[in-house]
# Entry
Amino acid sequence: VQLQASGGGAVRTGGSLRLSCLASGRSGRTVSNNAMAWFRQAPGEEREFVAGINWRGDSPLYSDSVRGRFTISRDNAKNTVLLQMNSLKPEDTAVYYCAASIYSYGSNSQRDFRNWGRGTEVTVSS
# Structure
């Protein structure tokens, strides 16, 4: 299954972006049974967890830095995971990656995620 992230861009502080992650695979393979997550990596920093969601989409997880501003959701029928980002801050500037877990329950540990998409860049200016 390939994961393709899109929706990144450049916005000013307080702006919004919506990232999308589309999963596609041969023979109808999907990630509908896998937990999904978004991670990000800022320049010179390690990759960090942003938000995750279980396979049913009813149990989201958020890092402290984005809770209350970002919302993760998924549409298994469309093989899509979304990250709505509101009230963006310059410290949200990073390359954002979507990833599929080997488990169905949500997790914030990178070790649980074996399938990674190419990132989409988000730049927030003050």
The radius of gyration is 14 Å. The first strand starts at residue 2 and ends at 6. The CA atoms of residues 60 and 111 lie 18 Å apart.
